Give the backbone structure.
Amino acid sequence: MVFKPGLFSSFPRRFPQPDFPKEIPCLSHKAAFRRKNPFVKKASSAFPLALAVLLACPQAHAQSAGRQQLHGHVPKAVATAPLVGDMPAAEQLHLAIGLPLRNPEALQSLLKDLYDPKSPNYRHFLKPEEFDARFGPAPADYQAVMDFARSNGLKVTQTHHSRMLLGVSGAVADIQKAFHVRLRNYRRPDGTTFHAPDAEPSVDLDVPLQYISGLDNYARIRPTWTGSYASSGGNLYIGNDFRAAYAPGVSNTGAGQTIALFELDQYYPADITVYNSLAYPTPSPTPPVP
């Protein structure tokens, strides 16, 4: 992909795609999040708001000992959807177990200071490992969740440095036992089926959990636009196609701006020439810099 002067200059600043755990349940049942820390340099100013929402999300109430009750895992549709039957016991599911951040009050204070020009912490962003040490789940808690999963017959499929998410997989029978639920199939109004627990899950674990993603698949991602902005033919989106799709009607052109690509490998000047001819009626120069 070749970047041209002004290609992205008119785009509104958007929420970054952080490399935090890949799903954050309380923003939505399946909302994804990755781990590019909001406190790392060059982070978007929109991210603290999202983290503030995360901190405000209800968390499970862990007792000092005994069973921990979770909430928000049964879709409202279950109350009225026709029951098809139980899920097959041997069917495999992939889940993501989310753990809450630590020290939320200190994090809220830091969020405020980072964007307050009067604060001595103004724009003093943390490195990812610094954020993890101060606000991520404790390593011992993360290990306890892994031990819990394995002791219940689940396989740990993915771990994260932030320790905010743990990927696991397992058979329906083992998942039902681990989370004290009954997974059942229901019918949507359009005739398709979905699975969901018939009650809120609970765990025999003292470590607080945020959410367990993957226990249901009621929500389906659907495109809101089925046409095409592609101007180069086919379904290839280049140059001003992104502008037309994401920032229509914006008058900024990015004139006078220069964007450079740092290449560690060989590139082909002919590709740039072809791209220019497709993307821009009057291509701007793209001189190589040794």
User: Anything to note?
Assistant: Strands lie at 68-69, 83-86, 92-98, 155-158, 165-171, 183-187, 193-197, 202-203, 211-213. The mean pLDDT is 78. The first strand starts at residue 68 and ends at 69. Residues 153 and 174 are 6 Å apart (CA to CA).
